[in-house]
Amino acid sequence: MNSYFVIALSAVFVALALASPLDLNDEQKALAKQHGEQCSQELNLTEEEKAKVKAKDFKNPTENIKCFANCFFEKVGTLKDGKIQEDVVLEKLGSFIGEEKTKAALDKCRTIEGDDKCDKAVKLHACFEEFKPQAKA
Fold it and tell me: Hey, which of 11, 56, 116, 127 has its CA 20 to 30 A from 133?
């Protein structure tokens, strides 16, 4: 999975300053990294959990990793109290993948629910991942 796609969901939706087909500017990268570090500290992620997030491994996430996704999305403004902030997503993600693709992502992902807001956040991440730009070969 591509963490910058998620970051693009504010800056936008995830986690760390890693290579990506999205063109984030230095300020966006720094802000994303700052949010990721804050959430990591707030949730007291283990070294193993930090490694999984950095490796973009969201398969079988721990509760901490699920809550990391929620924390990050809340910090960037794309989630608030477990609810997608569609205007923020459209503004932020739309500038990266285009308005039509963002609307299609919202149409597919807006009804996703989870056991709690952390579970919902990681499920939303997986849904929006389907719309990320493909890396150029």
Answer: 116
Strand positions, DSSP E, the chain: 79-80, 83-84
Angle at 76 between CA 31 and CA 16, to 5 degrees: 50
CA–CA distances in Å: residue 78 to residues 16, 45, 134, 135, 137: 16, 22, 22, 24, 30
Say whether 65 sits in a helix, a strand or coil. helix
> What would the two tokens of residue 123 be?
């499920």
Provide the residue count of the chain.
Answer: 137
Which residue has tokens 């919902």? 120
Alpha-carbon separation of residue 87 from 21, 36, 92, 137 (angstroms) = 23, 22, 9, 32
With a CB cutoff of 8 Å and minimum separation 6, the contacts of 12 are 6, 76, 78, 89, 92, 93, 96
Rounded Cα distance between 72 and 58, Å, is 14
pLDDT, tens digit, 9 for 90 and up, residues 6-60: 444 433 343 333 334 456 678 878 888 899 999 999 999 999 999 998 888 888 9
Q: Compute φ and ψ for 81, nearest 5 degrees.
A: 50, 40
